[in-house]
């Protein structure tokens, strides 16, 4: 049964944000040979992810995370939950995984909320929509991730607002966002029924200061100021093969 107030969302690839700490003590204790074997195996696995991405069957990026919450952050995008779980398990079976400790993770599915869509059109036919539902994750620059909710408290209950009001508010949100076109790439993933918050927000930029500026500026927009509730924040630097080798060098 559908409700007039419920928005029709569009979903794309499923996402796993997998954050790990490196067990540095254990890694340092391992022999040079053992470390090299672990790195070689990991690089081999990463090559299979690249092939997957080239075949448009998903996307994967790896980041060096700042702060104590994690040292590494994997973002995996896959067409279904089976493949999403498979990629996590494949990593866990590597030798290198024995030197990592899962710190936190986030499961969601890429979502377009379709507030600003033209009625009668098939949005999925639009190549720009496809590019957002099935994106190739950036391989350079920086990432910022945080989970968030829309508030349900007393008078400030997002889910009690009529569709028209939410549409108007989201339009304003989009206008704030558009100022960062070309500077910040956003990936919004819905996680209701999948993880602890309602959405995951993943931002990519070449300059991490853009994260600070966009998050700050959006706090003044009503959607965030009145209805936004935020979880934890984490920031990281994109890791290519050489940067990963350097990071793991003892
Ligand atoms: C790069 C900037 C940017 C741009 C252009 C942008 C635009 C848009 C548009 C046009 C739309 C609606 C249609 C769609 O595409 O889904 C959205 C949707 C959404 N957004 Fe957004 N957003 C940005 C950026 C952006 C940020 C930085 C945040 C975090 C908020 C903050 O305060 O920290 C955010 C959140 C969201 C969420 C949670 C949703 C889903 C809400 C829902 O109730 O369904 N977003 N967003």
UniProtKB/TrEMBL annotation:
An example molecular function term from Gene Ontology annotations: peroxidase activity
UniProt-annotated catalytic positions: 146
Cofactor(s) for this UniProt protein: Fe-coproporphyrin III
Any one GO BP annotation for this protein: heme B biosynthetic process
EC number(s) recorded for this UniProt protein: 1.3.98.5
Keyword presence, Oxidoreductase: yes
Enzyme class: oxidoreductase
Reaction(s) the record says it catalyses: Fe-coproporphyrin III + 2 H2O2 + 2 H(+) = heme b + 2 CO2 + 4 H2O; Fe-coproporphyrin III + H2O2 + H(+) = harderoheme III + CO2 + 2 H2O; harderoheme III + H2O2 + H(+) = heme b + CO2 + 2 H2O
InterPro entries in the cross-refs: CHDC (IPR031332), ChdC/CLD (IPR010644), Dimeric_a/b-barrel (IPR011008)
Any Pfam family hit: Chlor_dismutase
Pathway: Porphyrin-containing compound metabolism; protoheme biosynthesis
Keywords: Heme, Heme biosynthesis, Iron, Metal-binding, Oxidoreductase, Peroxidase
Cofactor remark from the record: Fe-coproporphyrin III acts as both substrate and redox cofactor.
Residues at which Fe-coproporphyrin III binds: 132, 146-150, 173, 186, 224
HAMAP family according to UniProt: Coproheme_decarbox_1
Recorded family membership: Belongs to the ChdC family. Type 1 subfamily.
Primary role: Involved in coproporphyrin-dependent heme b biosynthesis. Catalyzes the decarboxylation of Fe-coproporphyrin III (coproheme) to heme b (protoheme IX), the last step of the pathway. The reaction occurs in a stepwise manner with a three-propionate intermediate.
Record-given protein name: Coproheme decarboxylase
Species this protein is from: Thermoflavimicrobium daqui
């Amino acid at each position: 049964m559908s409700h007039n107030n419920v928005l029709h969302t569009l979903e794309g690839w499923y996402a796993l944000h997998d954050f790990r700490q490196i067990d540095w003590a254990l890694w340092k204790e391992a022999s040079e040979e053992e470390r090299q074997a672990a790195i070689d195996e990991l690089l081999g696995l990463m090559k299979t992810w690249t092939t997957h991405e080239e075949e448009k069957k998903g996307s994967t990026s790896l980041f060096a995370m700042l702060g104590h919450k994690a040292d590494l952050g994997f973002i995996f995008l896959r067409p279904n939950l089976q493949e999403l779980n498979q990629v996590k398990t494949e990593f866990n079976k590597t030798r290198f995984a024995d030197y990592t400790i899962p710190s936190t993770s986030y499961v969601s599915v890429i979502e377009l909320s379709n507030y600003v869509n033209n009625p009668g059109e098939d949005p999925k036919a639009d190549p720009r929509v496809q590019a957002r539902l099935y994106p190739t994750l950036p391989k350079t620059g920086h990432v910022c991730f945080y989970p968030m909710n829309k508030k349900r408290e007393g008078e400030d209950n997002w889910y009690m607002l009529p569709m028209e009001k939410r549409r108007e508010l989201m339009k304003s949100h989009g206008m704030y966002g558009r100022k960062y076109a070309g500077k910040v790439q956003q990936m919004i993933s819905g996680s209701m029924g999948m993880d602890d918050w309602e959405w995951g927000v993943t931002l990519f930029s070449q300059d991490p200061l853009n994260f600070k500026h966009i998050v700050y500026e959006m706090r003044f927009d009503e959607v965030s100021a009145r209805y936004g509730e935020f979880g934890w924040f984490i920031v990281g630097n994109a890791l290519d093969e050489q940067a990963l080798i350097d990071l793991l060098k003892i």
